[in-house]
Write a structure and sequence with these properties.
heterodimer; A: mainly beta; six-stranded mixed β-sheet; three-stranded antiparallel β-sheet; globular; B: mainly beta; seven-stranded mixed β-sheet; four-stranded antiparallel β-sheet; 11 strands
């Protein structure tokens, strides 16, 4: 049972816009920044969105993050086949004094 | 460019100690600008934070693992180490070495190692 809640799966067709949600509490998302990671099959995770909702160099501007209260979302526009993989949200939890992750969302491009 | 490389045994016997090393290249683990950590991923499952350390030795651990885990830095070797005592099959996972993007443990990971698969089995 993950501290942050994500839907187990999402899907979309090429060119479509999809969003992945991440729900937490006041001790994590509600009080701190949210990070988003992409993990393509057989590879290590890579940072997509950092604490300032910025994309590291090399991450396309098709990816964007937002937060409202104790929930956050990752939006992917102009969906492409190479976006297929798992996506994780993460946040620092002040109550646990540690990092918590969402369970991950498997994105399928139909 | 910063590169993190994990190393260690791929097979550990139950009840024994898992020991991994992460060698940092392209940057200094002594830097006061970053924290460093370990994250693992059991087969077919999601990411689990293990712990985070600063070059001074200050550490933060996941509460559920704290009694069995130790993370340290060797600034002379530019390495990060992980020890997990009394392992069971539940500790079977890919273990990732990571850099946090700022000078506090609450900064997220921005650089990941490629990961090393560790299996706990007799």
């Amino acid at each position: 049972q993950s501290v942050l809640t994500q839907p187990p799966s999402e899907s979309g067709t090429p060119g479509q816009r999809v969003t992945i949600s991440c729900s937490g509490s006041i001790s994590n998302i509600g009080g701190d920044f949210v990070y988003w990671y992409q993990q393509l099959p057989g590879t290590a995770p890579r940072l997509l969105i950092n604490r300032h909702n910025q994309r590291p160099s090399g991450v396309p501007d098709r990816f964007s993050g937002s937060k409202s209260g104790t929930s956050a979302s990752l939006a992917i526009s102009d969906l492409r086949s190479e976006d297929e993989g798992n996506y994780y949200c993460a946040a620092w939890d002040d109550r646990l004094s540690g990092w918590v992750f969402g369970g991950g969302t498997k994105l399928t491009v139909l | 460019q910063l590169h993190l490389q994990e190393s260690g045994p791929g097979l550990v016997r139950p009840s024994e100690t898992l020991s991994l090393t992460c060698t940092v290249s392209g940057g200094s683990i002594s830097s006061r600008s970053f924290f460093w950590g370990w994250i693992r991923q059991p087969p077919g499952k999601g990411l689990e934070w293990i712990g985070t350390v600063f070059s001074t030795g200050s550490t933060y651990y996941d509460p559920s693992l704290k009694s069995r885990v130790s993370i340290s830095v060797d600034t002379s070797q530019n390495q990060l180490s992980l020890r997990v005592n009394s392992v069971t099959a539940a500790d079977t996972a890919i273990y990732y070495c990571a850099r946090h993007e700022g000078d506090g443990p609450y900064y997220g990971v921005d650089v990941w190692g490629q990961g090393i698969t560790v299996t706990v089995s007799s």
